[in-house]
Amino acid sequence: MRLRLFYPIAILFLVAYFFYRLVSFLQIFFEHTGISITQQEIKIAHATIPDSRPQYIPKIIHNVFHDWKNQSMPADWKKNRQNCIDLNPDWEHKLWSEEESRVFIEEHYHWFLRAYDGYEHRVQRIDALRYFLLRNYGGIYLDLDNGCLESLEPLLYYPIFTTDGGRGALSNNILGSYPHHPFWKLLTESLIPYDHNYLFPYVTISYASGQWFETAIWDKYHHSIGGQANGEENLENLLYRIMMDDRPGAEPWIFFTQERGGSWNNWDNRMFLWIGDHLALDIMVGVSCIGLLLWCFKQCARSCIRKCPVQKDCSKVRSVEFFA
């Protein structure tokens, strides 16, 4: 009797665990933790000169260019970077090459070097590098397809921020923080546990090191600090999401531009971008498919029981009565 019950209970346990993991994963595409703030609100808050608020972020802008194709930096990316230099002349502007990036990881985070070298997709090294740079130096990280429209000084008064496109996961193309913020410690030390091949290149890049991964750890960190983020004495614990929605009717972008990107496009990018834009439909289809599979399993179980001619021959299928 116990053996008969083992298999259906084990199957139920696996199904329950699958649903738990699925729900946990899907949460990264919906409402996010942290304080949502528009670029207009940031500009208004800085309008009083001099700004009396504490300044957290050092004046450093990090860009990364790994020359995978033995080509020089595209002209539009050069223009983006130069605009940021011109608008922030008293800042340190650091452009990290592929060689410099590896040396930095080897010298400061040697424990991660093996994972860094072992990434299947090169863009994952850039993903990981940006997190370690902000952990070590602080400052503002910008993808090269993002430029500057104004001085970034108003952003220095927020302890840590990421960008939020208003749909799906958070973005990791623009990040800012003071050095050694505990969020970066949690995030960088979570890279190895998340380093798996998820079959599809887009999923592997996004969930092992990219924006899905960042979103999952962002929410995990926020929940871990709980009420510690409340009160004037805990301002450094506050996490900010700068809204950068590019859809018609959204708040205008004040500090940043968005140019041609796609340096890490793979064959499955368009498919998953379409899925991301139709989440409600995706969930309905997914739930319907799961329901159909469970119904088919139940029908097969009943059919096996009805066709079993002799009682003793039914011992192997009797356990499926649990589902009937």
From TrEMBL:
The chain crosses the membrane at residues 7-30, 279-297. It holds the Pfam family Gly_transf_sug. One of its GO terms (biological process) is mannosyl-inositol phosphorylceramide biosynthetic process. It is found in: Membrane. Keywords: Membrane, Transferase, Transmembrane, Transmembrane helix. GO terms for molecular function: mannosyltransferase activity. It comes from the Eukaryota. PANTHER family: MANNOSYL PHOSPHORYLINOSITOL CERAMIDE SYNTHASE, MANNOSYL PHOSPHORYLINOSITOL CERAMIDE SYNTHASE CSH1-RELATED. This is Uncharacterized protein. It comes from Penicillium cinerascens.
